[in-house]
């Protein structure tokens, strides 16, 4: 059958379908059976080895066509010739999106590497990865010139690396990370150019070091844009941004002959703080790096050239500012650089307190060493120069070397790096260092160090010393591995020389050195120690009142060996002279040895100037196994000298004061062992600790004291022996000899049983000294007391309040003040049961017998310690004077007598409920009084020839009680003996701590009683009181009032008296307010206002205002003053201040004076105040002043030599009994008369400075017309240093002016300007002044007898015939402006002068004269100032 054409086509199509189906089936089978996977695996391995020479092993590879993903098992990559892989991965998975198979557009959805491992090694050929051959350029770049470029697109979502490791030599690092949203886009711009953009949005990498520390870099971003041609690629922008910084770059890549070559520029910015936190495990870096870089190279090497812009940062305590660098790096990949060098500069580098300024150096790196040359810097004020070579390959034989010179460094800057005070040491120094060491092992360096310095030790600011001490030092030392050998260290400060030699092993921190210090003057060494701030007790740290000084020669020689932290010191020391407050104490020497566990002092001695000395030995340990031993020997030792040394040490100041007060001398010897160890002694031991430690003390000793001051008087000789045995302490041979008698005694104590036995006897002690011993220095006792006391018991019995003792004291005559007691006896003894003590005191006073009995019961009814006292005192017309003297009650010489009974009861021991601690107290004692008769005699002074006394008696029984709860007056009324002026009643009860009870006081008191407190007071008046006291005794509340009527008060030597005073004071709770209080004073009125506030009896504050109007007072002496004032007195019991202002309306001084008085008192101030305005010394007092005194042109002086008006503004401060006056006094106008010549005061100023050291300054100028000359006299300066000023118009020599002032005449013209004139003027002035002294008294008497107010005798050294003579002048001032004068030469009756002068005004006078020749004249004198 013929086959048609359509059948043939159908059969061919069916055959083709069968073939395709077979091929597809075969392909599916091939893919399913792994053929595709194996093909792809072998293809990848072959291509990798063909293009890079890297041999790869892929255990398993699976390709999933439908999911477009692939998965590979273990992957291993080997470098050529290596048996071990340099890269492995346990698993690789990838997912791909096929955008266009035709256009080969793919995108990577996901790529994961599990546990990849990269091994980087280095050898002489460099890094192992350098052996990988780079593949040929991609064939996608057309080979032919006319072959067009095609677009390239590769996008991805995420690349993940999990549990990866990178091994670099012997270090292994873990790596985890991922990259998100990476892309590569290549778009053709034309047939020859491809525009490329690539990068990723976010990348995270975590690196784990071998020690487990993790470093993570987050949010890294990359952007790269450029163009690619067939010949090259231009990188327009490359930007890598991370939180640590960013890198920007641009450049060009060419590949001639398939070898890539590149060049370009980059700019790197790095935040050091973020970098240290992220990558450097928190290494403390700060700052910001900015660095431009020039990059060039090819596939085999790279060249970098650039500079570091100024950097300021900090690394591990090192701060760098202004760091710049220029560098060049030319290096093959994976090999050591061919060239690496740079110039480094820094403005400042600081570390550990040191600073390097202007640092610069050239650094060059070679395969064998790092060379640092031309290094310079400014260090501590000096210049550092040097060089260094660091040889680093371990197999090299070359040694590293360093050589540095530091010249002119500032010693003061070095000192400021130490705890020494700034600016104490000054000077300059030099240091030279040469060292060498193998490789990088600088700790094995050897070499030499030499240093010198010259300068001064300068006293600090405020130091009394001003002269610096010269300072020089020279050090020579050798360096060996681990050791510094100090060949010689010589330091000289002042006259002292310190020499040190030895060695210091700085690895083991051990020292072995010899020290020697000698100075001919120890005062310099002590001064230097103070300047350097060393805290050495007694030498540099002293008390205010005691100053210890070392003088003379001193030596210290010793060795120091062992660990630097705990060395052993041995040696000797000597001090030539010890002085305290410029008093020589003696010289000292000691041998010492101090180790970490023991301190030993032998032959420690203090030798006093008069031969007394003390020699001591000490051996102490810091461990408990070895007790402390002490040996002391004293020979004629002055205790005051030893105390003076201890006074200079703050810790022993109190003991030093005690020894200084004791004085006298000591002899003795003590040998003791078993004392506490050094740790316990330095830590401080309480009394209980000492008692416990004392049980271990063994030894004995003797002590003798002579001429020692004690509270019982001078101890002429005292001796005692003490011994510490196994179970017994013994005191025997105690003998103390005092001027009034001897104390002797002995005693024993057994620590184990607590048993003791003590006995003391005395045949006589001074009663005043006994009172002083018990703290009653104010008790006026006199007499001799004998006593005998013994006690025998055990400590356990004492603690259980069982005492066994006996005490007896007697005195034949005992005087208390002005009262004498006879046959005084005090006895005290415990009862047989040891539960009570009975005391009896008897004495005979005049015809009265005093007796007091008391019983002290140790325990209260509950068996607790209480010391219950029961005592009763009976009085029967018993004189009160002795009792009042003992307790210092009332006015002086108060006396009287009393009849009744006084009972005292209560505990002397109590437990504080707050602290639960017991102690002695008198607060719980109860005192009850019941008296039937009381007569108090208050002496008011003498009234004529009769003693005026004021007698106060009781008005009925006096009954009162005082306890720890209340003060109660059951019946208490007092009146004066006549029942006329005084009547006071107290009634009620007042709690000590509070309550509703009250005490009322009502009656009147005669203010005449104030005279009993002082003989200077004269007073009168009546005080009426009606008040109620509530609250508590400690915090009282007072209500009521007090009236004062007809009050008068006058105090001797006080220029102001009060009369007709009266007013009322109101009491309201804790306030006392003056309602009205006025008085007459000096013809004026005085009004007092204000009041007081008393929160407690011990806290009283007051403020009183005092207003005075038109008060006349004669104060200061011979000055009559009229004044107003507003003053305020305020304060408390500790301090009160009187402040305010006093306004002087008029103060007038009219008392005549003379030249004799002026010479005798040196200078008259304001009205006779005298020299009190000179230098003053302030002393503390209860009342201080702050008062202003204002006198505006109200000060007048009108007497025979002055008629002036002045003003003053003064301030009174300081104490009220010795006030300080400061301010300014002005003489506004006035006249002074000297030798019948009137001087007009043109200027007068007196300035009184503040403060006790101030000296009053005077500036006074006056002028007069004498013999037609205008004479100007001035005095400027202080009272003890006046600067006189003498001028005249017309101008005259000083001698002529002095002659005019003294004699009223000029010297002859022929000698006016000669030395003779000056001498004659001085003699004339002296004789004139002497004649003034003689004639002033005569003038005073003649004025009284004849009404003559001028009588004057003037000596004339040159009279007629050449003999000295005199002139007599008699005159009278008729009125203020009219005067008549008669003068004659006593040698002849011819030279008689009569002068009548009438002054119209200050500058116009009419003068009529009859001269010595009998001629009459008439003058009109007019003075005109131009």
Automatic annotation (TrEMBL):
InterPro entries cross-referenced by the UniProt entry: TamB_C
Domain Translocation and assembly module TamB C-terminal as annotated: residue spans: 1076-1425
Keyword annotations of the record: Membrane, Transmembrane, Transmembrane helix
Major subcellular location class: membrane
Membrane topology of this protein: Single-pass membrane protein
Subcellular location: Membrane
PANTHER family, per database record: TRANSLOCATION AND ASSEMBLY MODULE SUBUNIT TAMB
Name of the protein in its database record: Translocation/assembly module TamB domain-containing protein
Organism placement in taxonomy: Bacteria, Pseudomonadati, Acidobacteriota, Terriglobia, Terriglobales
């Amino acid at each position: 059958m013929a086959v048609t054409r359509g059948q043939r086509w159908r059969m061919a199509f069916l055959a083709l379908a069968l073939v395709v189906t077979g091929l597809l089936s075969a392909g599916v089978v091939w893919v399913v059976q792994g053929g595709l996977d194996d093909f792809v695996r072998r293809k990848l391995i072959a291509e990798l080895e063909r293009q890079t020479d890297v041999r790869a092993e892929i255990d398993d590879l699976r390709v999933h066509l439908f999911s477009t993903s692939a998965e590979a098992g273990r992957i291993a990559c080997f470098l050529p010739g290596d048996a071990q892989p340099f890269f492995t991965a346990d698993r690789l998975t990838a997912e791909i999106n096929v955008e266009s198979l035709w256009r080969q557009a793919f995108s990577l959805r996901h790529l994961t590497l599990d546990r990849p491992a990269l091994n980087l090694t280095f050898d002489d050929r460099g890094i192992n990865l350098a052996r990988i051959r780079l593949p040929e350029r991609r064939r996608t770049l057309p080979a032919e010139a006319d072959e067009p470029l095609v677009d390239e697109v590769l996008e991805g979502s995420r690349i993940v690396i999990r549990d990866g490791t990178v091994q670099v030599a012997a270090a292994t690092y873990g790596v985890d990370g991922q990259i998100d949203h990476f892309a590569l886009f290549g778009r053709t711009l034309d047939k020859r150019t491809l525009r490329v953009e690539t990068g990723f949005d976010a990348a995270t990498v975590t690196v784990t070091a071998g020690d487990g520390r993790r470093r993570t870099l987050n949010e890294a971003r990359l952007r790269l844009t450029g163009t690619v041609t067939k010949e090259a690629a231009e990188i327009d922008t490359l930007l890598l941004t991370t939180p640590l910084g960013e890198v920007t770059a641009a450049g060009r890549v060419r590949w001639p002959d398939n070898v890539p070559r590149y060049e370009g520029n980059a700019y790197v910015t790095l935040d050091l703080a973020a970098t240290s936190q992220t990558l450097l495990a928190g290494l403390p870096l700060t700052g910001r790096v900015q660095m431009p870089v020039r990059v060039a190279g090819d596939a085999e090497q790279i060249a970098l050239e650039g500079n570091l812009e100024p950097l300021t940062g900090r690394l591990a305590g090192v701060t760098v500012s202004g760091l710049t660098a220029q560098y060049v790096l030319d290096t093959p990949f994976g090999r050591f650089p061919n060239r690496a060098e740079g110039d480094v500069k820094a403005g400042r580098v600081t570390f550990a307190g040191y600073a390097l300024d202007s640092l610069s150096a050239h650094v060059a790196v070679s395969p064998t060493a790092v060379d640092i040359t031309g290094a310079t810097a400014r260090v501590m004020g000096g210049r550092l120069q040097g060089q260094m070579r660091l040889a680093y390959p371990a197999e090299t034989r070359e040694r590293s070397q360093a050589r540095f010179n530091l010249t002119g460094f500032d010693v003061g800057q070095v000192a400021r790096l130490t705890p020494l005070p700034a600016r104490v040491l000054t000077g300059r120094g030099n240091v030279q260092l040469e060292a060498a060491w193998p490789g990088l092992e600088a700790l094995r360096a050897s070499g030499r160090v030499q240093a010198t310095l010259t300068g001064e030790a300068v006293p600090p600011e405020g130091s009394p010393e001003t002269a610096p001490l010269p300072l020089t030092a020279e050090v020579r030392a050798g360096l060996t591995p681990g050791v510094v050998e100090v060949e010689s260290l010589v330091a000289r400060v002042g006259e002292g020389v310190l020499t040190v030699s030895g060695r210091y092993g700085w690895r083991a921190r051990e020292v072995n050195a010899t020290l020697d210090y000698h100075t001919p003057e120890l005062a310099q060494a002590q001064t230097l120690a103070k300047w350097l701030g060393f805290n050495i007790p007694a030498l540099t740290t002293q008390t205010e009142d005691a100053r210890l000084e070392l003088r003379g020669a001193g030596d210290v020689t010793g060795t120091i060996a062992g660990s630097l932290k705990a060395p052993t010191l041995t040696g000797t020391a000597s001090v030539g002279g010890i002085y305290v407050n410029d008093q020589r104490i003696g010289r000292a020497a000691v041998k010492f040895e101090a180790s970490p566990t023991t301190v030993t002092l032998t032959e420690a001695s203090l030798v006093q100037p008069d031969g007394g000395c003390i020699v001591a030995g000490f051996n102490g340990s810091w461990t408990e196994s070895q007790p402390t031993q002490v040996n002391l020997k004293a020979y004629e030792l002055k205790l005051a000298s030893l105390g003076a040394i201890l006074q200079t040490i703050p810790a022993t100041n109190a003991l030093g004061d005690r020894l200084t007060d004791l004085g006298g001398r000591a002899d003795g010897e003590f040998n003791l062992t078993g004392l506490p160890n050094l740790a316990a002694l330095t830590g401080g031991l309480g009394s209980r600790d000492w008692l416990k430690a004392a049980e271990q003390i063994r030894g004995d000793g003797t002590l003798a004291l002579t001429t020692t001051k004690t509270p019982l008087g001078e101890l002429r000789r005292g001796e005692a022996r003490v011994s510490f045995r196994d179970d017994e302490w013994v005191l025997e041979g105690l003998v103390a000899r005092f001027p009034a008698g001897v104390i002797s005694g002995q005693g024993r104590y057994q620590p184990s049983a607590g048993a003791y036995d003590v006995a003391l006897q005395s045949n006589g002690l001074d009663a005043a000294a006994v009172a002083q011993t018990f703290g009653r220095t104010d008790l006026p006792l006199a007499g001799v007391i004998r006593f005998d006391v013994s006690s025998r018991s055990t400590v356990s019995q004492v603690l259980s309040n069982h005492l066994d003792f006996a005490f007896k004291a007697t005195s034949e005559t005992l005087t208390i003040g002005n009262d004498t007691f006879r046959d005084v006896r005090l006895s005290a003894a415990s009862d047989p049961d040891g539960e009570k003590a009975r005391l009896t005191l008897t004495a005979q006073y005049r015809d009265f017998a005093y007796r007091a009995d008391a019983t002290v019961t140790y325990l209260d009814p509950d068996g607790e310690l209480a010391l219950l006292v029961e005592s009763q005192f009976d009085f029967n017309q018993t004189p009160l004077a002795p009792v009042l003297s003992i307790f210092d009650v009332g006015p002086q010489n108060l006396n009287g007598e009393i009849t009744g009974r006084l009972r005292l009861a209560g505990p002397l021991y109590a437990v504080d409920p707050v602290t639960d601690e017991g102690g002695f107290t008198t607060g719980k004692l109860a005192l009850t009084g019941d008296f039937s008769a009381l007569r108090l005699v208050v002496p008011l002074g003498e009234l004529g020839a009769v003693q005026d006394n004021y007698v106060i008696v009781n008005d009925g029984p006096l009954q009162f009680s005082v306890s720890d709860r209340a003060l109660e007056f059951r019946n208490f009324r007092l009146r004066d003996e006549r029942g006329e002026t005084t009547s006071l009643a107290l009634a009620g009860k007042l709690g000590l701590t509070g309550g509703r009870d009250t005490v009322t006081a009502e009656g009147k008191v005669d203010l005449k009683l104030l005279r009993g407190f002082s003989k200077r007071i004269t007073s009168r008046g009546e005080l009426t009181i009606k008040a109620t006291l509530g609250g508590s005794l400690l915090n009282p509340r007072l209500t009521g009032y007090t009236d004062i009527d007809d009050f008068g008060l006058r105090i001797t030597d006080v220029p102001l008296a009060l009369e007709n005073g009266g007013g009322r004071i109101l009491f309201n709770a804790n306030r006392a307010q003056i309602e009205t209080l006025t008085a007459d004073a000096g013809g004026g009125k005085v009004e007092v206002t204000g009041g007081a506030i008393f929160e407690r009896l011990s806290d009283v504050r007051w403020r009183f205002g005092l207003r005075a109007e038109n008060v006349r007072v004669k104060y200061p002496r011979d000055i009559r003053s009229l004044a107003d004032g507003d003053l305020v007195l305020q304060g408390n019991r500790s301090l009160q201040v009187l402040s305010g202002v006093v306004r002087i309306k008029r103060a007038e001084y009219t008392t005549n004076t003379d030249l004799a008085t002026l010479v005798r008192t040196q200078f008259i101030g304001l009205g006779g105040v005298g020299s009190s305005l000179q230098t003053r010394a302030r002393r503390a007092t209860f009342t201080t002043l702050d008062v202003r005194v204002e006198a505006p042109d109200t000060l007048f002086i009108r007497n025979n030599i002055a008629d002036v008006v002045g003003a003053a503004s003064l301030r009174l401060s300081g104490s009220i009994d010795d006030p300080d006056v400061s301010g300014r006094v002005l003489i506004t106008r006035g006249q002074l008369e000297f030798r019948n010549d009137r001087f007009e005061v043109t200027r007068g100023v007196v300035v009184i400075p503040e403060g006790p050291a101030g000296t009053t300054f005077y500036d006074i100028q006056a002028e007069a017309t004498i013999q037609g000359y205008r004479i100007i006299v001035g005095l400027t300066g202080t009272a003890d240093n006046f600067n006189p000023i003498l001028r005249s118009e017309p101008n005259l020599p000083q001698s002529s002016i002095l002659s005019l002032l003294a004699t009223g005449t000029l010297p002859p013209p022929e000698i006016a300007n000669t030395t003779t004139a000056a001498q004659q003027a001085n003699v004339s002035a002296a004789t004139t002044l002497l004649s003034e002294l003689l004639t002033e008294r005569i003038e005073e008497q003649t004025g009284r007898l004849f009404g003559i107010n001028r009588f004057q005798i003037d000596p004339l050294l040159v009279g007629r015939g050449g003999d000295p003579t005199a002139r007599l002048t008699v005159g009278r001032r008729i009125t203020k402006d009219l005067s008549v004068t008669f003068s004659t030469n006593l040698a002849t009756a011819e030279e008689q002068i009569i002068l009548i002068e009438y002054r119209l005004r200050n500058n116009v006078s009419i003068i009529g004269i009859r001269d010595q020749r009998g001629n009459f004249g008439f003058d009109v004198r007019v003075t005109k100032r131009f």
